[in-house]
Write a structure and sequence with these properties.
By secondary structure, this protein is of the alpha+beta class. The protein has helices at 6-19, 24-31, 89-94, 115-124, 126-152, 155-165, 167-172, 175-181, 186-197, and strands at residues 35-39, 44-46, 54-60, 63-68, 74-80, 85-86, 101-104, 108-114. The strands form 2 sheets. The protein has a 4-stranded antiparallel β-sheet.
């Protein structure tokens, strides 16, 4: 297992405390279950049809989660960045083949834990159960907000939501990927941006 610097342990502890207060002892125990891994841009962490077996925590870089529609087009579902957990959580939990893919959008430095290594902690320590609950509540709310945005707002209104609420996506995600996440075409998004910037 990897030895993490005190500065990183503090950074990780703060991120966990933002979800749910956790003791330093529990943080140390949790980090013992992780190794440090580096990936190149384009590296595939999970292909649809595979069973997800790893939990990732991003130290540096970005990971996207996507699936394919009936025409084979990519539908981007989620973007993960620094100080966020990333995985295909349904497949990870149920240990069933995933319908989604995980790929590195950039070179990535991550902590990676194998499911059998970290899972026992959740039955042995209530703190981990509470953190996991808060994490999945947040994830559910994010996905619900994204779904409502697609259903209720026009393409232009969706783009303005990104500008207001997720400005980091404009710098870190390609126009094609952002358009897919917004449920529109790259061409439509380009026209919207050009019109708003004039």
């Amino acid at each position: 297992m990897h030895h993490f610097s005190p500065a990183f342990v503090d950074r990780f502890h703060k991120a966990m405390n933002d979800l749910q207060p956790v003791s330093a002892e529990s943080i140390a125990l949790f980090l013992e279950q992780f190794d440090m891994v580096e990936y190149k841009r384009g590296d595939i962490l999970l292909r649809e049809g595979e069973v997800c077996r790893h939990l990732y925590y991003i130290i540096k870089g970005g990971i996207r989660c996507y699936m394919h529609d009936e025409h084979g087009r990519e539908i981007n579902l989620h973007f993960y960045f620094e100080d966020e957990f990333a995985s295909e959580f349904k497949s990870l939990r149920m240990q069933e083949p995933s319908e989604r893919n995980l790929v590195c959008m950039t070179a990535c430095k991550v902590m990676r834990s194998f499911r059998p290594d970290y899972l026992p902690l959740f039955s042995q320590h209530m703190e981990f159960t509470q953190v996991a609950f808060q994490f999945f509540v947040q994830l559910f709310l994010q996905e619900e907000a994204h779904s409502e945005m697609l259903q209720k707002l026009s393409a232009e209104e969706r783009y303005l939501q990104v500008v207001k609420l997720y400005p980091h996506l404009l710098q870190r995600v390609s126009l094609t990927q952002l358009a897919s996440w917004l449920g529109t075409s790259r061409e439509s998004l380009s026209r919207i941006r050009a019109r708003l910037n004039n």
